[in-house]
Amino acid sequence: MRPLLLSLPLLSLGGCALLMPSHDPSQAWIALDAREGQSMQASRVDDKPLSDPRFFQVTPGRHELEVRLEFEVGAGDIGQGSDGYRRTCLLKLAYADFTAGERYQLQAGGIGFRPWVRLYDERNREVAKARESRCGDV
């Protein structure tokens, strides 16, 4: 019983790490929408590394975002008798009109070996597409 009581504070700290910080209304918030079977992380803004890979928060105006995407390449895209595998890519997305207080969403996926990332505004309109930076050991 005593070890359980001693471990409760440590377990509760782990739950706090899952909470997202509050949105600063003077900045634009960019959420990441990873689909099943993939992992997407915020990597850099304007070539500066981020401390939290779960989201972007940027000042109004032009910014270049870098995203790390890991996705599944299906066996059918590789060749007969092959197994599927995980591919990791860095993608960069430039957008000139980030607006203070607005919430954006990055959605991603893969078609065969090609990754894609698109930025949507609050009205669910596509406003930008990312370009592949590099894939492999990233």
Automatic annotation (TrEMBL):
**Keywords noted in UniProt:** Lipoprotein
Q: Does the keyword Lipoprotein apply?
A: yes
Name of the protein described by the UniProt record = Lipoprotein, putative
Q: Which organism is it from?
A: Metapseudomonas furukawaii (Pseudomonas furukawaii)
